[in-house]
Amino acid sequence: MCRGSLDLVTSLATPPPTEIAADLLDDLRTARRGAVALPALEPATYARDHAAFELLSDQRGLIAGHLAGRLAGMGDGPLSILSVGCGDGSLDARLAAGLVAAAPGRPVRYVGVEPWEGSAALFVERMSSLDAPEVSAEVHVAAFADVSLDEMFDVVVFVHSMYYVADVGTALRAALALLRPGGELWVLNAPKAALNALVDVLAPPQENHRQWFSADVGEAFADVGIILEEAVTLDALVDLLATTDEVLDFAVQARLTPELRDPVRAYLRAVAVPARDGSSRVPHPVDVFRAIRH
Ligand SMILES: C[S@@+](CC[C@H](N)C(=O)[O-])C[C@H]1O[C@@H](n2cnc3c(N)ncnc32)[C@H](O)[C@@H]1O
Fold it and tell me: Contact 227/291 with Cβ under 8 angstroms?
């Protein structure tokens, strides 16, 4: 009886992790209020730190499996894919390799759009290293809004790149216009869940706008009148609790100052959940939006 009361007192005195996390986030918000924006991530190290981040998460595998399943349902004729914000091509090369393995000889055309030259060069290198004559690949070094494309595609895909466009509705309309009738638009974007609540507080603005999360993307689809065939969430987890400063910076999309790193790490510990193996991981969900050009 007495022991039970003590337990009750202890549990009342210790706020649940969600309250601790909310307080830590508020503290960070207060610390940043009115301060000069933190430096953005540098193009030269972005792809490297992104790759290190993905190695700590099971999200990349879930995305690859989901998109490979969709590609497998698109017949066995020639296929053309536009990957907007293709980065270093690690995901696209994996998908292209899967297409070649499933139907050797099937012509696959891959076009990347990527504003950062180093990442764009890696995209071409990765596609070439598939050594598959049926795969043709090229990349345009440009932001999506600035690229001029004179061909139509079966698929236009944005994997974690819609955050950065100036206007989501404009980008969605432009992407739809690049699809053949029956072609599919796929947008994979993160919600503003535990991890991206940090991005929202810490990341510097992108060309005068904040990063766009899934709610913004969903609203933009509705605003421009593009009907969604599907919107699903892939629930992933990322192991960020003992990561390097570089990966921590990638996770929050800003170059952190040394004094911000401890509170950021404390927040990540507070939002972590138990994984199947008993370790603590940070939720890392991604939403998949799919529309068809009719
Ligand atoms: C998180 S990475 C994703 C890369 C790749 N899609 C993947 O999943 O591995 C986001 C990419 O979007 C690119 N990006 C940023 N702004 C962009 C824009 N306005 N148009 C197209 N791509 C952009 C970045 O350079 C970066 O390579």
Answer: yes
pLDDT at position 207 is: 81
In the prediction, which pLDDT does 9 show?
45
The separation between CA 203 and the C-alpha centre of its own chain, rounded to angstroms, equals 15
- Cα of 141 from ligand 1 centre, angstroms: 11
- Kindly report the protein residue whose alpha carbon is nearest to atom 14 of ligand 1: 85
Q: Which of 189, 196, 191 is nearest to 25 (CA)?
A: 196
Q: Which of 94, 164, 234 is the best mutation target for the ligand 1 pocket, counting ligand atoms within 8 Å of the beta carbon and taking the most?
A: 164
CA 251 to centroid of ligand 1, rounded, Å: 15
**Domain residue spans of the chain:** 41-191+207-239+279-292
Q: What torsion do the CA atoms of 63, 69, 70, 74 make, to the nearest 10 degrees? A: 150
Query: Which of 177, 184, 176, 225 lies closest to 66, judged by CA?
Result: 184
Predicted local distance difference test score (pLDDT) of residue 101: 95
Domain 41-191+207-239+279-292 has CATH 3.40.50.10260: no
CA 294 – ligand 1 centroid, Å: 27
Name residues of the chain where pLDDT drops below 70: 1-14, 17
* Euclidean distance between CA atoms 244 and 241, whole angstroms: 9
